[in-house]
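=== RUN LOG ===
request id: a7f3
mode: sequence -> structure
chains: 1
length: 728
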Amino acid sequence: MATDGEMSENRELGEPSAMEAAEVPTLTLPEMSDENGFTNSASEAFAKADTASFSLPPATDEEVDMPADFDRLWNTAHDNSQDFTSWTDLLQYCEQEGHIAASRRALMAFLGRYPLCYGYWKKIADLERRAGNNDKAAEVCLQGLQAIPLSVDLWIHYINLLLGTLDMNQPDSPKRIRSVFEDAVGAAGLDFHSDRLWDLYDEWEKEQSNLRNVTAVLDRVLKVPTQHYNAHYEKFKTHLSSNEPKEALSPEEYEEVRALCRETQKVERAEQAKEKGKEMPPGEEEPVTPEDTDSEELMQRIREQVLLRRDAIYQENENEVRKRWNFEDTIKRPYFHVKPLDQIQLRGWHSYLDWELAQLSKDPEEDCNKDSNKMDTDVKEITEEPEVTAQIEQGTGETEVARDDRRLRVLFERCLIACALYEEFWTRYIQYLESRCVDEVRAVYKRACLHLPSNPNLHMRRATFEERHGDLAEARRVLEALDKNMPGLAVVRIHRAALERRAGQLEQSEALLQEAVSQSTEKPILHAFYSIKLARLLLKLGGNPGRARSILQEALEISPGNDKLHLNLLELEASSEPGSSAQAVQECVTRALAAPLAPRTKILLSQRCLQFVEEYSNSVQSVLSVYEEHQKLLKELGGTKREAENGDEGQEKLIKGDDAPADGTSAQVPPTDPQAPITVPPPPEMTMDVSAQSGGYGGYNNWYQQQQYGSYGYPNTWNYNQGYYPPS
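=== RESULT ===
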């Protein structure tokens, strides 16, 4: 298991991050509440955690002159925002210089990019406290806890800050501290390593001489599987033996156990009296103990009965700990770091999540009713003074060893601290939450996109999620930001155009593609790709074949050797009215034959022209004329004649060049029967490969950036039976 030291420091900083720089957003800090207004459950804490929308309060002394090397290191960090080392160099320099303004500014920028580095939240809180800004220090802690509600270290740091700065003689101070403790155990109390937080809570209640509160806290932690679960039980035993049961137990539990023990005593004494009855002299009876007098024997019986009840809870909790121990033992780095995790730990997290998912009940409604009944029972067992009863009891149900989704959510959140740079774990969490709460899924997507700003797949899924749930404005904003941060990534622009088309904004969809065409004139392959997309939109949805033709012809001027452009233009001309398209088809083929295309491509285009005139021409002379031209082409191209006549081999090789389906299967070949209709294989579904997230824009499906546009062009190849005409 990881030691406390390993968990409390971000060690060995220096490896480059796979994350892009993100602008530091702003957030209004939540107001402190003296009532029970803090988060009291883990699920609420995580739902409110919004690391994608926070920043520290702006510093008031930014105009102060900075140290000599600050600007250089600052610019280096921002120019190389993926390099974690450049940030830590800046922070170390500011700390060495002891310059408050520089440290504040550097830490604010750093935490906006790496909010899970809880050690730096502690650093800036200490910085503000040393400067005498206790309120700012508290605000910083709250800000950090909003980003990492599971951080036991940060909760303890915040509580110690309050204990060191609040005047405990004020009547509201203990109430506020207790409220923060409840907030802490509600958010992080289910963590396997939350023992120190629970210890601090019961020790503080002991210092306040609230023995019943100490009992209530220990009762709750006895039901939580933690690393040091047995130490909590020993504490409970010591607490019960060192204090009078009447002072340590709630009135309800004390009276219930006392009545049970007195009844047991009566039965035992009656049996003993029955045995001794014949031996006692006449007129003498055993002295009767008054009902309101508690003997030491009775007190001991009460303690034994209370421990008997707790022992059952302890045994159940110990069983839960044993189930989790091996999983916990594989977690060597539970904190965030930009260094990759080894495969053993990654598999360990997946196995742990799989196991916890398997523990969920098949009947959530039944589990909910059981949990509600158990909570009611626990509330009866733990009663407190009127002013704190609500707080102590409110968290009781949240810490039950119940196989519901609260424990699973805590495990997911723990996993996403250590594995924040791994898309697969964010995806698992989102898939789990999708059937439960839309707002929670939205919050997780925002956090995931903050930690993985260079992962277009994740951002586009987020946009699709927002569109599916009716928030088109947010979907547009996500895609626009991604398009801005990763310019030139074709799949993002295509998604933006498709979003507008589905929203009924055809003009906006057209404008996005037209803009992409205009911006890619220096990149012929990308220019051809966008031109084909725009031409298809204009032809299929805009009903404007003239403009579509113009787009393709302009693209051919830039890329005359692009076979996809020629094929698309030919298909456009062939799809027009036969009477008006014959000449256009022949002109299109003539242009293609004069272009620097591969021989097989030219033969296929010529075959298509021959097929077209055979099917639609009103003059056999024109058919024979095209046929003769086709035969001349075959002779000129020599060795490819037989392949073209046979058709299959040539087509297969051409298609496999850059139009082959992603699964490696052969594309559909048109039939050789002259009477059979020509069929066009549907374009394969768009896929993305995001395996290379850390190296710029590579790895996002090569044909989006290279000479491979078959999926969005017309991959038709035409085979024509030469038996209609005599061989040359």
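=== NOTES ===
The mean pLDDT is 76.
The radius of gyration is 37 Å.
=== END ===
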